[in-house]
User: What shape does this take?
Amino acid sequence: MHRASVWVFCVATVAATAEKVEFRAGVARADITPAEPIRMAGYASRTHSSTGVSTRLFVKALALEDAKKNRIVILTTDLLGLPRAFTEEAGARIEKQFGLRRAQIVFNSSHTHSGPVLRPNMREMYDLTDAEWSVIERNSRRIVDALVTVAGAALGDLAPATISFGQGKAGFAVNRREFTRNGVVLGVNPKGPVDHSVPVIHVRGADGATRAILFGYACHNTTLGADFYEIDGDYAGYAQQELESRYKGSAALFVALCGGDQNPRPRESKEHAIRHGRDLADAVASVVAGPGRPLHGRFRVALQMVDLPLLFHDRETFEKELKDTNVYRTRRARAILKLYDERRPPRSVPYPVQALGLGKGLTLIALGGEVVVDYALRAKREFGHKGDVIVAAYSNDVMCYIPSLRVLREGGYEADTSMIFYGMPSKFTDEVEELIFTTLRKVMARVR
Assistant: This one.
């Protein structure tokens, strides 16, 4: 079996001082670029496997430990999204091998649309042969193994560190929910809500050198279009490359924020992806160059699942849908009818809500799915008075889009038609936003 090579980022040994060490940090990464041509994730219109590799893909890990030995591991991946089957298996193996609780582990994906299809995610979108699924299965097993290996390598790399926080800004994200006479379409809405903040966690070693930079942005990682057939990390990958080039020996880790309804602009070319990556790296570098706000205190973690109910559906709906001319609807219908036959039609979606208190005054919220920007803006309003808040999406499971109540009522791709590609039988009910925030308040109360 092909195994991903793992790198750890070592720091120079320095003489001990009388000053108490408050934090330790460890970083590691593994190359998870597919070893063979593979079907690519993100665009349903692609018709064949990848034709080459434009940039390498990685899984990276940042392990942090406070003075009380409380530990956190944040795993980032250059992938469309990790399904729950991946994170459950990898999380259980990390718990068993390295003694962490599941709440101490965060999985996040960059949401690049130029990475590999993963099993069993979004099977209704792709019409693939058994041979193509075999390639996907081999690559998927390799990624799960890499997640566990890299988490262990980062924990084994723990060394004295200082941690600071700051925020920059990048302006290439634009709201894509355009209002027309025919309803909401995927387009450009310059008046729609956005979040241009670029949160940055800067980790320095005992020698003062940059060891790790964890940064995020709320924007779809879709500069490259469906006609692009090479493996590529898109703008998030180029931003990480640029930062690691500027800060030699460091690890740059990208965390996708609530960009479910945000697109990069301009887009559709590799040159645009490189430009956006450089702009994002510049925003991060401006923070790294400044003093930042030093973090102090202990880590706290909480993770809770909540069931998000779906609108009522019945078997008759999908028996009719089998006759639809839309191939994605007929695939979805077959999948849902199979679940009806097994007497387990989906009535709700299990949803992970996680929060990490990173010392005093900084909280990382990690939400599952393709979360629209409304959630980040609301969370910052509701919880920001007690300190800085980073609101990540695409975390721990990417099962479908997560619309706010506003988006759900307006309709459009994020609220409705995207559910077909994700194999969901219907839209969410109007309870979705409040159920998530009720759960979020509970986990926030445990980390602050």
